[in-house]
Write a structure and sequence with these properties.
Structural class of chain B: mainly alpha
CATH class of chain A: Alpha Beta
Strand content of chain B: 5-15%
Order of helices and strands of chain A: EHEHEHEEEHEHEHHEEEHEH
CATH superfamily of chain A: Divalent-metal-dependent TIM barrel enzymes
Number of domains of chain A: 1
Strand content of chain A: 15-25%
Number of helices of chain B: 11
Distance between the termini of chain A: 28 Å
Radius of gyration of chain A: 18 Å
Radius of gyration of chain B: 24 Å
Largest sheet of chain A: 8 strands, parallel, barrel
Oligomer: heterodimer
Distance between the termini of chain B: 63 Å
Shape of chain A: globular
CATH architecture of chain A: Alpha-Beta Barrel
Number of strands of chain A: 12
């Protein structure tokens, strides 16, 4: 990763390589230094307006493959999808033509209010039908396939009746959407709920998985003494998450892999270092798969 | 088993219910109806995420206000503001339009009389930063409009443009605070009288400029959708408003204009 990135248009499909989640503190550095990064992912909601922020996204898009990751569509809201928001997202997607567009298996809007977090859904047939309807609606409106990210959760609803991995599998089969397999989220949720993270991963349909996410999480002890893992994207990827990533690569294969860091965002070099580690794991596993084949 | 709609309403209500700042962060109270069986401490994680994200969004849009009152006081304000005015859209750059008026009513902040004005300015700056890109009106087309119709013209302002009338010199306070310029802060005369400010997005970034009261009132009325004639009414002779309008058009502060349909009596509706 020594060569600076060429300024020739690199826009296009997202390669099965390690990319970095681009956040505001690194905009200037990326525009000036054009570091060698295989691709960038940006949060769609931060770029819905115009001006300097939009110019930055356009400049990044000219030189790198770009994925747009939505955090506000609230596909799990019983009140339905905000069509005005979907329309703004459509305009952004049409202008930027990102290599991938993704969203979350979660909800954020109720009573007409946006609660600024990815909230957990009960895993029920009602929720599955509703999310399928909204994913289809969004895919039709955007005119393209979405990837849906598995959530990190702290709560399980007592009336949930479908295991999360089966929910995702059914969602992908019924709507044709892909799955954004967040390895850290699997580890966090599995730890919090006493699931087997490896079995969760093994149960996901490999052909539907279009991207991996890797991030750090925090470990908290509640007043009750209960230990909870919190998906804060505020540190390096934890060793058991790297191990789970290797397992994913072995079973599912190489996919675009993103390093995410949102809390106490470090120097860009730290992100490059994490991306290099992911890249090394990808290449090692890829060559061993090739040998095996 | 609650239906999804009921469960989400209960969950949202529990998140926004908020906790008064003097209580310990973990509420031991049982979750509200529809959330039976849910550990209240786990609900607190979501409540905390919600509040932290929204407080950070407000801090990003109101940096000078935060600096003036201090981070702790700002967080306390946010804890009261957020449950009363949760966002209505998923784009957090749009969140906080009600924050200036909230601050004006917020009793603990009453000691800082100019806080509302600084917040108004910061909100206009935030709007200018994130407004959509809209092409300016094509001035050449203006020549083709029948001279008789010109007084009735209504203009559409660029979404990045604001005109503010503020009692305090919010522009100099804002600059001194963000530059951490104590000397400039000490030199501010709060009794100097009201200011008119024009806020817009220029090629080099956000511009905040004082403008004369005549030009400002005229501009404000045009931005509000008044006809050119109505905006000119009551102007003083020395205001040179033709030049002001020409400057607005040349600077791309209007994106379109509208000629109201001429009322031609048809006789059908006459008594």
């Amino acid at each position: 990763m020594d060569e600076p990135h060429s300024s020739e248009g690199q826009a296009g499909p997202i390669p099965a390589a390690a990319g970095i989640g681009l956040r505001f503190p690194h905009h200037e550095h990326v525009l000036k230094a054009r570091p060698a990064v295989a691709w960038f992912e940006l949060h769609a909601e931060n770029y819905l307006g115009g001006g300097r922020v939009r110019r930055t996204l356009e400049a990044v898009r000219r030189d790198y493959p770009v994925s747009l990751h939505g955090v506000g569509l609230s596909l799990g809201s019983a009140e339905g999808v905000d069509l005005a928001h979907l329309q703004r997202l459509k305009e952004l997607v049409q202008t930027i033509e990102p290599g991938l567009v993704s969203e979350h298996l979660a909800w954020s809007v109720t009573g007409g209010h946006y609660l600024a977090d990815l909230l957990p859904l009960p895993m029920t047939e009602e929720a599955l039908e509703l999310v399928c309807r909204h994913v289809q609606q969004a895919q039709e409106m955007l005119g393209r396939r979405l990837l849906l990210e598995n959530p990190s959760t702290y709560i399980q609803f007592p009336h949930s009746s479908i295991p999360e991995w089966e929910f995702l599998d059914a969602l992908a089969r019924r709507t044709g959407c892909g799955i954004l397999c967040d390895i850290n989220n699997i580890f966090v949720s599995a730890s919090n709920h006493g699931w087997d993270a490896g079995r969760y991963l093994d149960a996901l349909p490999a052909e539907a998985i279009g991207e991996y996410h890797l991030a750090g999480h925090a470990v908290c002890t509640l007043a009750s003494g209960r230990i909870v893992r919190i998906d804060n994207h505020g540190s390096r990827v934890a060793p058991p998450v790297w191990a789970l990533y290797e397992r994913a690569l072995r079973r599912i294969g190489a996919r675009p892999t993103l390093i995410e860091w949102d809390t106490d965002v470090p120097e860009f070099d730290v992100l490059l270092d994490e991306a290099a580690q992911a890249e090394a794991v990808l290449r090692t596993l890829e060559s061993s798969r090739a040998r095996a084949a | 088993m609650p239906a999804l709609l009921e469960l989400q309403r209960a969950f949202g209500g529990a998140l926004l219910a908020g906790i008064p700042p003097d209580e310990p962060p973990s509420s031991a109270a049982a979750p509200p109806g529809g959330l039976a069986g849910i550990d209240a401490q786990l609900l607190d994680i979501y409540r905390n995420n919600c509040r932290t994200t929204l407080t950070a969004a407000l801090a990003l849009s109101f940096p000078a206000v935060r600096h003036l009152v201090g981070a702790d006081f700002f967080e306390t304000c946010a804890r009261v503001f957020i449950p009363a005015h949760p966002p209505r859209r998923a784009c957090l750059n749009d969140y906080g339009d009600e924050f200036p008026s909230f601050l004006a009513q917020y009793a603990p902040a009453a000691g800082v009389g100019y806080l509302h004005d600084v917040a108004m300015l910061e909100w206009a700056i935030n709007r200018a930063l994130h407004a959509p890109d809209v092409a300016p009106a094509d001035i050449a087309l203006l020549a083709s409009i029948d001279a008789e119709l010109v007084p009735a013209l209504q203009f559409v302002p660029h979404p990045a443009v604001s005109v503010l009338h503020l009692a305090a010199p919010a522009d100099v306070i804002w600059r001194a605070v963000l530059d951490e310029d104590d000397a400039a802060m000490a030199a501010i005369d709060l009794a100097a009288g009201p200011v008119w400010l024009l806020i817009e997005r220029g090629a080099a970034g956000i511009e905040v400029r004082r403008i004369a009261s005549g030009a400002a009132r005229f501009t404000q009325r045009l931005c509000a959708g008044d006809s050119l004639q109505a905006a000119l009414d009551g102007a003083a002779a020395g205001d040179a408003l033709e030049a002001v309008l020409a400057d607005h058009l040349a600077s791309g502060r209007f994106t379109a204009w509208r000629v109201p349909p001429v009322q031609i009596p048809t006789g059908e509706n006459r008594p």
